[in-house]
């Protein structure tokens, strides 16, 4: 071999970097070079790649590819055109590119919303000023002699209630008791969605491993839960006392496809989702013969949304020739409701997409009633007509799980019928219910409607849109949509008219849950997947796939499988209630509101007893407790609510255009809800994580002055790990307040404790937004050091920083003594921020090699560690406030860009921090020091840490807003936060498509074309190929950087339409699954 030093000419790779005009220089390839395929070695570090094969290069002084390294070499050496290709662009890797900012960018950054920004003032409950007169013409009430405002029932009211009980309540109980018994599926034990009631992680691991093995060789079968659902659907549809097989009915503790709760016994005895509210205690029972005006507090639930189209569909009572229309419900609670309860409210969304807005207002109690009347109304309306079997309004907590026999209900409900300024008493409403409870069609009317059109018209006018009941059937109540003709199938002598009801089939009754449909669909999916994967299948399989698709199409179009059905039943034995759907939908909102009121009362306990902090905006606290699995809170069994709305609620008819418009409105509403009412606590958890890191890092920084960056990082990781955060959440009893749904998300202890840790971080984030960092530090310290007063005292009052402790009034007088400190004053004038302790600023510029000096008493490593946490927090605050419609993932990508070493290096260059580095020897030219990008970033982070220690978080926010957030437009307007290699991969996946529009899955490949050495630095030329066509070349000091540069060149090259047509052409004869 030639022992002489290699001479570098214009043909070497280094010359391309040294020469600014790269296009004019051609790269001549030595005959001994080979290409390396690095597409499969993306996990190998750049140092390993460059060092693995370059040990032999130094000894041989020639670029011969070594053997035995981790590269896959091509069998043939690259041709001259492989390296020298003028058409394919060449890009040179740069460690970072400047991100210049203008005065306009800085002004825009000051328009960003800071941490102090509030969207609006938290809403508070209003007070109803309008007074109503309540009439009592029949003398149903008498005044108490001791308290004239307290009303007692009279003898007339007693007789009226006895008649109501005999005519309606006893009929309801007796006929319901005669219904044939049907038993739901009884499982052997309570199982979660993963079919394991064990909380042991090892048991779950073994279960998952066993499932993975069986999935490979065994045909997929229905799970235990699917078998239960199939059994339940068949049982309900074949029930002998069912009103109709297409109409679903409610059962206690049951959903439409199985049990409401499959939680283990330990988990089912606590939590909001099981109806346990931590603060509730038994309430002394009310006197049923009195209105208890001294104990009950009156509130009115007002619905803002128009539910009915006309007064014809509204419940009306005719009393003394005056129409009293149903307005809503009055609620009587046993305790005052805080005014911030409205901050916990959320709109009720019906199944048809209707959004119901409402408000709760306090009002003076001027209505005539007794508690006994309200109890009878509850039994008739909520239990009898709506069949809300899982509705529990008795106090329920872990200490008092069963209080039905020893306590009064939390709330009593009264329907409001109003005309102008007059409201009906409850006695008049009870009397109206008795008078209108009559058969829909008597035998005489049944005979008359057969020949008399006017009789049929009158019958339809009196019953269409009303609720009718038959307590012998399930469900007992149904909405009448039409009455016409006679029931010719009736074997009795009298022919009764038919009642028609238009219903929407529940998903469990649709074709999707039919076993035959599932088997056919599974076979069709397998054949379609085989066709997509291979591109061709046999003729027999093609014919089978065609037949299966036809069967699926016919199956969906069967009359019995349609989603919307009209069912009919005989009007015999049905009784009219004269109640319309407006009362039903008001009651659905009422149930949700009562549960939210109970939840809000529980939050009072959490704030006073656990957090020791009262939120100004209760919405933040509620949001922090909302798990990602939580859906809309209905206040009881959600399937019961949906069934009631389907059977008794309004049937809103929409044509095609109205349906499309409503769908668009629902989409806009969903977007608005994500912006204004974040559905879960992910964003707050993202913010709280950075708050925790700053608080813990600052504490370690002050209390452990001799521990360096690595040690503090270890301590911080131990303190903020999920295991410890879950323990802190347990001390606050957050698991009793979390809002999450039944399902597989939290079915074992590990997942549940991880959710608790996230909830704790979300609560910290909410407190940070509402009250500041100091409140967060107090609650964290009280949880961690609740059993150690010394540690808690140290947490609340940490020692001063060593550079601050010696000169408590500041050390700026030392500038006269030390010329270096005097030179730093020029830097302070440049950034317009002046330090109280200028030695802290000097420590920012002290390198590790100069750590032992009397001026700074240490280097900048610890400040850099603190500044990194502060920078993360402030950037997260700005992103949280200014991107309310973005999720955690998007904000994380933006933050990664803003706090990256590249961005910080740009800030370092703009501020000229290198000029102020502390010299290691006299007359050292610090500007000539070769600083890496990471070193520049460390300087910026150390400066932020110094600002935090000396001037506080507010000055840090100003500095970061001007220097970092002013560069936000570089990242949010395009995809520049992704590295070019990842962006090229996504771009190719989206462009190279099959004829059916799906991606081929083909990815770019990278090859090393040439290596070279210049001034002891390795240079690599890498090319990127897609679909066997070269699309870009890149040059860098290591393979990873060169691949990134090649990806940038490829993205530029692929912008040409002629190149796209050639590169992204689909080849039908190629098997892309192997690629």
Spatial extent as radius of gyration = 38 Å
**Number of helices, counting only DSSP H or I runs of 4 residues or more:** 36
Write down the overall mean pLDDT.
82
The CATH superfamily of the domain at 803-973 is known as Ribonuclease III domain
**Principal-axes shape call:** globular
The name of the CATH architecture of the domain at 803-973 is: Orthogonal Bundle
CATH topology annotation of the domain at 803-973 = Ribonuclease iii, N-terminal Endonuclease Domain, Chain A
As a percent range, the share of strand residues is 5-15%
Major sheet: 7 strands, mixed
GO molecular function, one term: ribonuclease III activity
Keywords: Endonuclease, Hydrolase, Nuclease, RNA-binding
Family: Belongs to the ribonuclease III family.
InterPro entries: dsRBD_dom (IPR014720), Helical_CED_Drosha (IPR058938), RNase_III (IPR011907), RNase_III_dom (IPR000999), RNase_III_sf (IPR036389)
Features:
single chain, 1075 residues, alpha+beta, Ribonuclease iii, N-terminal Endonuclease Domain, Chain A, 7-stranded mixed beta sheet, 43% helix, globular, disordered N terminus
Walk me through the topology.
Blueprint: H1 13-18, E1 36-37, H2 46-52, H3 55-60, E2 72-73, H4 80-83, E3 90-92, H5 103-109, E4 133-135, E5 141-143, E6 151-153, H6 155-177, H7 201-217, H8 224-237, E7 254-255, E8 258-259, E9 297-303, E10 316-319, E11 322-333, E12 348-349, E13 355-356, E14 358-362, H9 371-385, E15 411-419, E16 422-424, H10 426-436, E17 438-439, H11 443-451, H12 453-463, E18 466-469, E19 477-479, E20 482-486, E21 497-504, H13 515-534, H14 539-557, E22 564-570, E23 575-580, H15 581-611, H16 618-624, H17 638-648, H18 656-676, H19 682-703, H20 709-719, H21 722-731, H22 749-771, H23 773-784, H24 789-796, H25 802-805, H26 819-831, H27 838-844, H28 861-882, H29 888-898, H30 901-911, H31 933-950, H32 953-963, H33 969-972, H34 980-991, E24 1005-1014, E25 1017-1026, E26 1029-1036, H35 1039-1053, H36 1057-1063
Parallel strand pairs: 3-26, 4-16
Antiparallel strand pairs: 1-2, 1-24, 5-6, 7-8, 9-11, 9-14, 10-11, 11-15, 12-13, 15-16, 17-23, 18-19, 18-23, 20-21, 21-22, 24-25, 25-26
